[in-house]
Structure formats: C-alpha cells, structure tokens
Amino acid sequence: MPQLMRCPFCGLLQDEPSGVKACSRCGGGLEYETTTPSGALPSYLQVQMELDQVTAPAGQNVERYLLLTLRTPARVPPEEAAPAGMQRPPLSLTAVLDVSGSMRGEKIEHAKAAVRQALRFLHPGDAFSLVTFSAQVACPFPPESVYDDTAMKVEGALQQMTAGGNTALCAGLELGTANAFECKQDNNLVLLLSDGQANEGETDLEKIGMRALHARQQGLLVSTLGVGPDYNEALMTEIATQGGGRFYHIQEAGKIPAFVAGELGEVAALAAREVTVRLSLPPGATLIPLSAAYPVRQEGDTASIFVGDIPCDSELEIPLRLALLANPPKAKRSVEGTLTFTSPAARKHSLPVNRITVRFVQPDSFQLRLGIVQPVAEKVFEQMKASSFLGVSRLRASRPAEADKHTETILSSLEAYSELLGEGRAKEEMHKIREDVVLSAASPAYAKQVVNSANRIMRDAKDFNK
Question: Average of pLDDT values for 168-192?
Fold first, then answer.
C-alpha cells in the first residue's frame, strides 16, 4: 500500500509515486512522511509549510515566500473536547455598542436584538458585560457571571438605551477591554459594533489599534462589526487585526444579530488556543509577516509566529517573507520547525512542521521563473493582494498626505511578484488591482467591499449574510 511522502523542497505532501521518487510539483526528491514522534497520537490540527520558489541565484541576497496552512476539523475529537459535563469551555463576552446619533432607529433596535440573542447563547458560569459609547461612555451592565436571571436584568438595561451624540469609540473600547479583564474566562471576546467615525476623544488609528493589541497580549480577542455605509473600515480592520479577532462588514442593520451570533459561535467553538509556530531559520535569515494579525518575534535563527486561537472548521493561510543572505552555488538552506497549541481539554500539543529547502544555482543559469511552485505562488499572490488593499486603506486613513506615494510603493512591490505568474497574467492582475484602488478612493461603499474581501482572505472570516 503506497505511503505518504513529503517533498523537502517545496513542502508538498503526496502519495508515494511508482518508480522514481520525485515530487510531482517541483521535481525534488521525496522522503517518507513521519508526522508524529514514535508512540504519539496524530494531531487533529493539521499544518503544512510550502515554498513558492525552490531555486535562487547564488551570490545574491534573495527573498522567498513561505506559506503556512493550518486546518482544523468541524469538531475536535471527544478526548480533546471540553471537560465532561461542559458543552464548551467558559466564555466571557463584552459587547461594546455605538449608541451615537447615527444609530437611531432600526440600527439600535437590531443591536439590542443581537445582545438578547447572544445572551441565549451564554451558559451559567459564563461572563457578560455591556458597554455603550456616544459622546460619553457608559456601562449599562457591569461584568458579572451569567445566572438564570441575567437576561431579565440585561433587558432592563436595554430598555433604557437610547441613541444620540458623537462617537467616542476609543473610550468605549478601553472600557470594554477593562471590563473583560475583570471577568476573564478560558475564551474572552470583546465585540465592538459601530456605524460611524470616531470623532470624540482619541481618533488616531494607530493609537486606537495599540489598545486592541494590548488587550490581545493580555489574553483577549477583539473583533469588530462595521454597519452601513459610513463607518471607518480602516479603523475597524485595524482594531480587529491588532486585537487578533475578525472584522465584519454588515450592509443591512437587520443582519446585525446574525453576525453577532456567528462571531460568538466562532469563539465558543475554538479548536485550538494559543497556537504558535517556531521555525529554525538558516544563519542570517529574517522572517517577516505580511499581516499584523500574525506577529513574528525572531531571536537569532529562531522565529516564532503567534497565530492565536483558531475556531473549528477553519483553514488559515499565513504567508511569510523569508529574506536569505547570499550563498554559494549548490548550497541548500532549509527551514523547519514545531507547532504548539492547547486543546479545549487544556492539553498541550506539539507537532513537527515539515521542512522546505531553497537551492542556490549559478547566477548565469538562473531565470526569473526557475523553480516556481505555481500553486503556492498563486496563493501567496492572493494573500499579497489582500495585504496590499488593507495597507492602502490604512494609509488613506492614517497618513492621507503620504497615501499616494506609499500606495505606489505597495503596488510596485506587488507588481514585481506578479511577474512570477507569467507576463500576460501579471498585466491582467495589475490592471484590475489598480482599477480597484482608484474605485476605492472614489467610492466609500466600494472601499468597504474591497476591505471586507481582503480581510476575509487573510483571516478566514466567514460570511454570515446567508
């Protein structure tokens, strides 16, 4: 019976071929796959590392891209689920709601309905808190454990809630994260909903994003929901990215409850917590993330990628730029590592991350597309496009005076990579990308659609519009 084999160059896992043991994708030699140490159980979290181009010119500093793909099942195995008697680990939810003047009418009513629906999802022993913000910040329901009468008590607070005034979004986020710290559980979600622009108190995108990053570093997850045509998509994406959560674009107020329930379900049904990938790099190499959602810390020749928590039934693709120093012809430089995570049953897991290898060849024999692994390059390009759109959106919001100049730098870098896909394809892709950038600048509604699509690609955020 054929066994699985792994290419140590491009990283592809494949069936054992008959005859010569050569990779079907890049031509490299194959090795029999050993996924777990002897005597260990297979992991339900799957990880694969792939390389976009297995060949590089000798005598030059070069950059290649790694693609880490992490997959989780629809359900974790029974032995890794929450302890007996519990449907899931305890959950803390802090709802942070915009109640400024623009939320009057059906928006605030649907936001209230979403809170009611979320409470039906919570179990005794979970924690809940409600924060509102307009020109001022309020806490209609301070953090406390959920009991049988919690829904009735929260309903009283909802009945008193009215909309009016400006939008002190940053102050609302700060109180929301402070409340979440007071009643931390195994899983902790701060969910911020707004339909407008931050125009009271701190409004700087980067500074507000740092508040979300601090919350993430303390074990909270911060997700955002932007409602309608007028909110600041760059700010809402920044908060979610720095907070390790997801951003959702809600076009119709009537969809608010579905998105709140959907995100709450994602957090409650985590397959793996505190996911971290540690990679051993060649001497002098540097690993650079494309997104702040997956920060990298490098110490010497070891790089740690902090993925965070992953829900069930997810597939994350994490692109990483690998900068390599010049090497002589015939040199081979490899990257491999280990992935660690905690299951819902609080068990610690560790599994190997397969090796990939860059081969250096004589400069005069190297061509632009030599050693390209086309399927990986295609995926990396899609991720780079998403990262570029998010980067342009962020620039326009945080540094509008410099946006045009830096946008061209971003697009030039993307265009250089597109050449790996073929000349005709590169022209076609870049024409559409530049068109989307222009349309986004002219139309706030179009900009929100582009940012939403880009975020879904980079964070595997689900669409709850259906």
Answer: 95
3-state secondary structure of 64: strand
Place of tokens 């950059």: 63
pLDDT at 87: 75
Contact (CB, 8 A) for 333 and 285: yes
Q: Does residue 244 come out as left (phi exceeding 0), alpha (psi in the -120 to 50 range) or beta? A: left
Q: Is-contact 257 114, C-beta < 8 A?
A: yes
Q: Is 454 helix (H, G, I), strand (E, B) or coil?
A: helix
Q: Measured at the alpha carbon of residue 267, what is the angle toward residues 266 and 269, in degrees to the nearest 5?
A: 65
| Closest alpha carbon to 266 in 191, 211, 216 | 191
Q: How many CB atoms lie within 10 A of CB 276?
A: 16
The HSE-up count of residue 319 (CA atoms within 13 Å, CB side) is 22
- CB 126 within 8 Å of CB 211: no
Cα angle at 361 between 355 and 367, to 5 degrees?
A: 105
Q: What is the mean pLDDT of residues 55-69?
A: 97
Half-sphere exposure of 404 (CA within 13 A, CB side): 2
Distance CA 431, CA 428 (A): 5
* For residues 73-92, average pLDDT: 85
Residue 178 has pLDDT above 50, yes or no: yes
Query: H-helix or E-strand containing 421?
Result: none
Place 146 in a pLDDT band, splitting at 50, 70 and 90.
very high
* Interval 226-243: pLDDT, tens: 999 999 999 999 999 999
Of 57, 3, 38, 25, nearest to 356 by C-alpha is 25
How far apart CA 231 and CA 444 sit, in angstroms, is 9
For the segment 88-96, the average pLDDT, to the nearest whole number, is: 93
Contacts with 347 (C-beta within 8 Å, 6 or more apart), sequence order: 80
pLDDT level of residue 111 (50, 70, 90 thresholds): very high
Q: What is the pLDDT of residues 316-332, one digit of tens each?
A: 999 999 999 999 999 99
Q: Using pLDDT thresholds of 50, 70 and 90, give the confidence band for residue 428.
A: very high
> Helices marked H in 325-422 — which ranges?
374-398, 403-418
Q: Which of 89, 218, 91, 82 is nearest to 145 (CA)?
A: 91
Query: Quick one: pLDDT at residue 41?
Result: 55
With CA atoms as reference, report the closest residue to 25 among 35, 11, 4.
Answer: 11
Question: What residues pair up with 14 in beta bridges, in sequence order?
Answer: 5
Q: 26 Cβ partners below 8 Å, 6+ apart?
A: 7, 9, 10, 12, 54, 371, 373
Q: How far apart are CA 295 and CA 310, in angstroms?
A: 15
